[in-house]
């Protein structure tokens, strides 16, 4: 099918508490998931390739999967990058421009463990290794709560910081907390970004809104079979009734003319 699924990861590490376990995929699970992607006939493309296909009206490569990471945790370098390199999987990492080298303060407010974010030198290093760096705003605060002036800093200001740090144009964006509406999408476009990722689940087809691209969240408690179902259904949660309905439709459809 000519559609693409964008996967969204956060930390790739052993969870340090029950609170963060949902958004912390273990290195072993991540390796198994990437091995499955690489060996199961999926077309692994970069986010830029998907955006260019939608923007130009070209066909999206069949069974495409895009891998993305939010926040820019330091553990990405240790636990995710070697696996991506092993299986030659392109990836985009969305960094919080105003918190490079700092800590995940927005998670600590929820009593989650402290984790370090990659520094400017770190993102330069992974960019040099082939990872696309995108922007996850300036402060990781929900953009829907901000004034118009703050939105300019969270978009244009953040883009300028990352572009200057990497000496290249940073043109992809992801909304912190998935918080976005028409005003926030317009601010991102006005800042010069060419596309932005939401946290709304589903597949992306040729008519997808480039400033509200859909993504599937990969959770720390997803089994490999659960991960495979997410790829098949394009959903964060797949119930037994969803599976039954899918196979029933496959049985019935050949008899419809």
Question: What does the model show?
Answer:
With 257 residues, the chain is α/β, with parallel strands linked by helices. It has a single domain, classed as Glycoside hydrolase/deacetylase (TIM Barrel). Helices cover 39% and strands 14% of the residues. It has nine helices and ten strands. The strands form three sheets. Strands 1, 4, 5, 6, 7 and 10 form a six-stranded parallel sheet that branches. A two-stranded parallel ribbon has the order 2-3. Helix 7 (182-190) links the parallel strand 8 and strand 9 (195-197). It is globular.
Main attributes of the structure:
two-stranded parallel ribbon; 10 strands; 257 residues; single chain; 39% helix; alpha/beta; TIM Barrel
- List SSEs in N-to-C order: EEEHEHEHEHHEHEHEEHH
Biggest β-sheet description: 6 strands, parallel
The count of β-strands is: 10
| CATH fold-type name | TIM Barrel
For CATH, the homologous superfamily is named as: Glycoside hydrolase/deacetylase
The CATH architecture category equals Alpha-Beta Barrel
Describe, in short, the structure shown:
This protein is an alpha/beta fold and 257 residues long. The chain contains nine helices and ten strands. The chain has one domain (4-255): TIM Barrel.
Q: What topology does this entry show?
A:
Elements: E1 4-9, E2 11-12, E3 24-25, H1 27-39, E4 43-44, H2 47-56, E5 64-71, H3 75-87, E6 91-95, H4 105-108, H5 120-128, E7 132-135, H6 148-166, E8 172-174, H7 182-190, E9 195-197, E10 216-217, H8 224-233, H9 240-252
Parallel strand pairs: 1-5, 1-10, 2-3, 4-5, 5-6, 6-7, 8-9
């Amino acid at each position: 099918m000519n559609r693409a699924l964008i996967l969204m990861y956060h930390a790739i590490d052993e969870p340090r508490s029950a609170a963060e376990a949902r958004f912390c995929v273990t290195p072993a699970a991540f390796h198994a998931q990437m091995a499955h992607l690489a060996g199961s006939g999926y077309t692994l493309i970069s986010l830029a390739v998907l955006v260019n296909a939608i923007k130009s009206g070209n066909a999206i490569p069949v069974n495409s999967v895009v891998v993305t990471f939010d926040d820019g945790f330091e553990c990405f370098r240790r636990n995710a990058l070697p696996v991506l390199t092993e299986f030659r999987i392109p990836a985009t990492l969305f960094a919080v421009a105003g918190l490079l080298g700092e800590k995940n303060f927005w998670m600590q407010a929820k009593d989650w463990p402290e984790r370090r974010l990659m520094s400017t030198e770190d993102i330069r290093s992974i960019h040099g290794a082939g990872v696309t760096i995108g922007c996850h705003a300036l402060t990781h605060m929900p953009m829907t709560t901000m004034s118009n002036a703050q939105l300019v800093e969270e978009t244009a200001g953040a883009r300028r910081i990352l572009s200057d740090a990497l000496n290249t144009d940073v043109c992809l964006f992801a909304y912190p907390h998935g918080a976005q509406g028409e005003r926030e999408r317009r601010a991102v476009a006005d800042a010069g970004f060419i596309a932005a990722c939401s946290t709304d689940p589903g597949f992306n087809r040729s008519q997808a809104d480039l400033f509200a691209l859909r993504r599937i969240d990969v959770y720390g408690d997803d089994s490999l079979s659960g991960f495979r179902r997410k790829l098949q259904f394009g959903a964060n949660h797949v119930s037994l009734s969803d599976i039954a309905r899918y196979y029933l439709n496959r049985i019935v459809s050949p008899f419809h003319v």
